[in-house]
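Appendix B. One record, verbatim.
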Amino acid sequence: MATNTNTISDNQDLIDQAYEVMDGTSEQPNKTSKWEKWKANFKKRGWILVFILPALVYVIIFCYIPMYGILVAFQDYMPGDQIVGSGTVWVGFENFRTFFSNPNFWDYFMNTFILCIFGFIIGFPLPIIVALLLNSLRSKKVKKGLQILYYAPHFISLVVLVGMLKLIFGSDGLLDQLSIKMGGDVNGLKLFLSPEAFRPLFIFSGNWQDFGWSAIIYLAALSGVDPALHEAAKVDGASRFKRIFSVDLPAILPTIVMLMILSVGNLMNCGYEKVLLMQTSGNLPTSEILSTYVYTFGLVGGQYGVGTAAGLFNSVINVVLLVIANFTSKKLANQSMW
């Protein structure tokens, strides 16, 4: 009986709605409600967008507008020529063939890959570990003191940093003087002239400079962890070390995934400025990378098309790595950038 009653009630509702449509008395959905709601929301909070305008203008001027310059990779370009115009000399993929046929191409590529992949393996987890350890400290004074100590190297310029490295590891530097006084080679270690020493010096100095600064975003994510979770873990008998893996690490996992995707998408960019500053005639076999090739052959050597082709090749690799990292993260962790 209850089922029959419900069916009759539903049928009656449908009949009533049909009569309302025939009489024109039914309420039509407000088609402009979403637009009006958006306008009201923009009027109330739209001023916040003013804060992103400088960043937006910067990206448009320095990232999007210069993108037309990749056309130089397909041209026989010289300074003063029109990139797009009647006088443009198009050469197709000739610049790429010149670049790939270079006998040192694979050396440049492998130097770049090794430098970047080891820098990523060491440099990516280091800020996470530091942030977790700092967050677990009980003394706030010690925590703030260590934070300042870790942040400070980030504000040292690359020129000053490389100068410090040369004072310590360069010819007649601190280590050379100590080695000579302790009975070592009278010529010193000369690490800046050693191809084997370039990669460790580059990677560890870069991580020393940036790991504290990179830990800030993880510390910000850890500050949002509910203290009640730690209290519940304490009640269950979890130690401080175990709470890091059961409470803190899962809380910052989305941040870790996003930053990992961005880092992989920028994997092949080592930063040619520091490489050029550390480069010497002795360490060229390991210090010559794709970015320095673009600078040496493109700008200094005047082969602008070949240099642009090398830079475009490097950028395409980064895009492919970004897509792969995003796809893998979406499948495994159900998190992605798009």
